[in-house]
Amino acid sequence: MEIDISSLSLPELRELQSRVIQAIDQKKQSERVAAQIRDLSMQLLDATGREMQAAWVQPTGAHDSYPEGWQVTHNGKLWASLIPGNVFEPGVSGWREVTLDGSPSAWVQPTGAHDAYPLGSEVLHGGKRWVSLVDGNVWKPGAPGSETLWEEVVEEVVEPEEPTDPEEPTDPEQPEEPTEPETPSVPEWNGSSVTYPPVTS
Q1: pTM for the full model?
Q2: How far is CA 129 from the centre of its chain?
Q3: Which has more pLDDT, 52 or 141?
Q4: What are φ and ψ of residue 21, in 5° steps?
Q5: 171-197: average pLDDT
Q6: What Rg do the C-alpha atoms of the chain give, in angstroms?
Q7: In angstroms, what CA-CA distances link 124 with 131, 138, 152, 154, 172?
């Protein structure tokens, strides 16, 4: 809902300012807590001997679940956890495939908001490359009704320019061909006593 702040009175503006500052503080606090939980989870996994990018092991509870950002290998692929306290199997829920060259990974059907695709995410599906047009995208790319949710990425093929023939270089050792001398023009006789020079051939 958009608020027209120009129509608010000074006390209403102060109340709005107070609520905004409070919301910002709460957001910062929750982000700090989430970061602390993630750090503690990573320390706990390190203490239990689990290593980053090691093979995935099914957690038995919250104490050995995977934190957000933790990477594991599973079924020949590298996966990153999308959520804190992740006990799901990679490729099923809560994980996103990580490609080493940074190219888009294969689309995986999200199971909820926690692993839905954010706006701008690129995926591969059906032999095509797609980009999400919305946040929280759980639709299959290319499915009927998904035209406003996914857009196929079509790479432009740039045609190479036709090579132009370079000017033929001149050989400095080869003498230029002689040109025919110009025949001098003879002025037209005007009937006067002017003497004209003889024409030589």
Answers
A1: 0.55
A2: 12
A3: 141
A4: -60, -40
A5: 61
A6: 39
A7: 9, 14, 10, 12, 60
DSSP letters spanning the chain: ----GGGS-HHHHHHHHHHHHHHHHHHHHHHHHHHHHHHHHHHHHHHTT--TTEEP----SGGGPBPTT-EEEETTEEEEE-STTB-SPTTTSSEEEE-TT-PPEEP----SGGGPBPTT-EEEETTEEEEESSSSB-SPTTSTT-TTTEEE--PPPPPPPPPPPPPPPP-TTSPPPPPPPPPPPPPPP-SSSPPPPPP--
pLDDT at residue 116 in the model: 93
pLDDT of residue 33: 75
pLDDT digits (tens, 9 = 90+) for 48-92: 667 777 899 999 888 788 888 889 999 999 999 999 889 999 999
In this structure, which amino acid lies at residue 149? Answer: L
